[in-house]
């Protein structure tokens, strides 16, 4: 008989260890192996693995599956608010997946499959090694948005996306919206209903809220007076913790650059770099030398043109941009460490800058080449901001000559 001694949290990060500890009282049987079958949500088998028992047969064996299960999730859910219009709530898309593990045994040349099984969910998170030791999904389920920022700052026109895990036992009934004026007085309340409250759908286990201020204004239709008086607002899952969004109130001297980045919890945080940005590019050339037709001079008198003897057979260039933030708070400096290590960053841009429809916002993937980042504090570093060098995440290739 197989016994599951320990197993991962029901909702566990896909990119952290997904570890099961099992034992069997048949370990002394000849030719004994543990047999592990892993299935996706459609009942398709992903892998079958066999493990020998440990040297001390009574000891449990640890089986780690995150390298298999992480393939079930993907960060394909970052979308601008206007793209999902008129929806305020979307389901998880590639953020979450369910799985089933069936444990069996083999001995005496016979496989005894599925003696015991268990199911769970993996979501697209990769939590810091030290923090993962204290991770518990009950802190997040129906309670807390997947961001480490206690408050975000956004312009009224900006997109804001908040993600949350929804329990398989009880659905979130709705999300409370509350708007405050500069004095901190509440001036408006409303509720965003949750249309994805079925407990049977795996995709409903993760929800994405699109709650940029202008987008809320267009969908909830509160008055222009409320719009003009608003200084910040909160989004709160029913019975859970509020997420605050401060509205950027300073004069926008330069066209700001807004980045959206995949955070360690699997959500996408947004951050504005509001000072003047600077564009540049780096070019790479591969060449060879060839002889001209006129080996003496390389000059063609008929066309009155010298021949090209240095041939560029591969020319590419990468576009870059330096973005600069306003002065940062201690909390922002701490939280932006997540941006520095993020594997996926989008820069918001106007499609008109690239020949598309003017005023239509698009997301462009970018990379940051920062390897070392210092978390600063106002107590010791006084006033400080962040200058960040970004590369657009593609190469442009020129003509071959």
Topology (elements, then pairings):
Elements: E1 2-6, E2 11-13, E3 19-24, E4 33-40, E5 45-51, E6 61-64, H1 66-69, H2 81-84, E7 89-91, E8 96-107, E9 110-123, H3 129-132, E10 151-154, E11 161-165, E12 174-180, E13 186-193, E14 206-210, H4 213-220, H5 224-229, E15 232-237, E16 243-247, E17 257-262, E18 268-273, E19 275-289, E20 299-300, E21 305-306, E22 310-324, H6 330-335, H7 337-340, E23 345-350, E24 361-368, H8 378-381, E25 387-392, E26 396-397
Give the overall silhouette. globular
Q: Identify low-pLDDT runs.
A: none
Task: Report strand %.
Answer: 35-45%
Structural class: mainly beta
Number of strands: 26
- Taking all Cα atoms into account, the compactness measure Rg is 27 Å
Number of helical segments with 4 or more residues: 8
